[in-house]
TrEMBL record:
Superkingdom of source: Bacteria
Major location (coarse): cytoplasm
GO cellular component terms listed in the entry, alphabetical order: cytoplasm
Known pathway: Carbohydrate degradation; pentose phosphate pathway; D-glyceraldehyde 3-phosphate and beta-D-fructose 6-phosphate from D-ribose 5-phosphate and D-xylulose 5-phosphate (non-oxidative stage): step 2/3
Record localization: Cytoplasm
Top enzyme category: transferase
The name this protein goes by in its record: Probable transaldolase
UniProt keyword annotation of rRNA-binding present: no
Task performed by this protein: Transaldolase is important for the balance of metabolites in the pentose-phosphate pathway.
Catalytic activity: D-sedoheptulose 7-phosphate + D-glyceraldehyde 3-phosphate = D-erythrose 4-phosphate + beta-D-fructose 6-phosphate
GO molecular function, one term: transaldolase activity
Length: 218
């Protein structure tokens, strides 16, 4: 399973990259706003800075909600760097934009996926990735992981190439469950990735190894 980091924070992206397990980055307008990035030129510059840190795909979201606007913004984003994946919302004009970009060989990530039907539509339109928001489904007492399983079954039934990118991942259990049910990618915060490191028996085991070594090497 590929690990993407879901942030626009350059320091965190660099830290995940340095860990050696990072496969890409996802952003969205809320994450850009959180970093105080505003104005078209600054936004484009920031995406370029992210592309310069990572080796894999970098999802950059369009703001327009009409077909022409999405195409205009998406083409401008795609020109920035070959790592850019144009992120398109799951709306009617978004489906048309997915088809357009897929025919032009530009990678897309269809965002705000909350149902298997939406994921099926995005795959049929040629999306490179679909982003089901599992944390936000869990928040309203729907099972986010069950949705990933459902999409996995549908995509496998018909051999769709679209990759399932589990988004709105909040914690290490989300990551493990995504891997169990065969998500292609998960995107989450650095804290969830680093939490995978932790086990009390690892800590106590290491402390004992070091103490025993110190005793005989004093
Ligand atoms: O990738 C989508 C993600 O940024 C949404 O996460 O935690 O705001 O639901 P969250």
């Amino acid at each position: 399973m590929k690990f993407f980091i879901d942030t626009a924070n350059l320091k965190e992206i660099q830290e995940a990259q340095d860990l050696g397990v990072l496969d890409g980055v996802t952003t969205n307008p809320s994450l850009m706003a959180k970093e105080g990035i505003s104005g078209k030129n600054n936004v484009l510059k920031h995406y370029k800075a992210i592309c310069d840190i990572v080796e894999g795909d970098v999802s950059a979201e369009v703001i327009a909600t009409d077909f022409e606007g999405m195409i205009r913004e998406g083409e401008e984003l795609a020109e920035l760097d070959e790592k850019i994946v144009v992120k398109i919302p799951m709306i009617k004009d978004g489906v048309k934009a997915l088809k357009y970009f897929s025919e032009k060989g530009i990678k897309t990530n269809c965002t705000l996926i909350f149902s298997a039907g939406q994921a099926l539509l995005a795959a049929k339109a040629g999306a490179s990735y679909v982003s089901p928001f599992i944390g936000r489904l869990d928040d309203i007492s729907f099972d986010g992981i069950q949705l990933i399983e459902q999409i996995r079954t549908i995509y496998d039934n018909y051999g769709f190439d679209t990759e399932i990118l589990a988004a709105s991942v909040r914690n290490p259990i989300h990551i493990i469950r995504c891997a169990e049910v065969g998500s292609d990618v998960m995107t989450g915060p650095l804290s969830a990735m680093l939490a995978l490191l932790n086990h009390p028996l690892t800590d106590s085991g290491l402390a004992k190894f070091l103490a025993d070594h110190a005793k005989t090497n004093a």
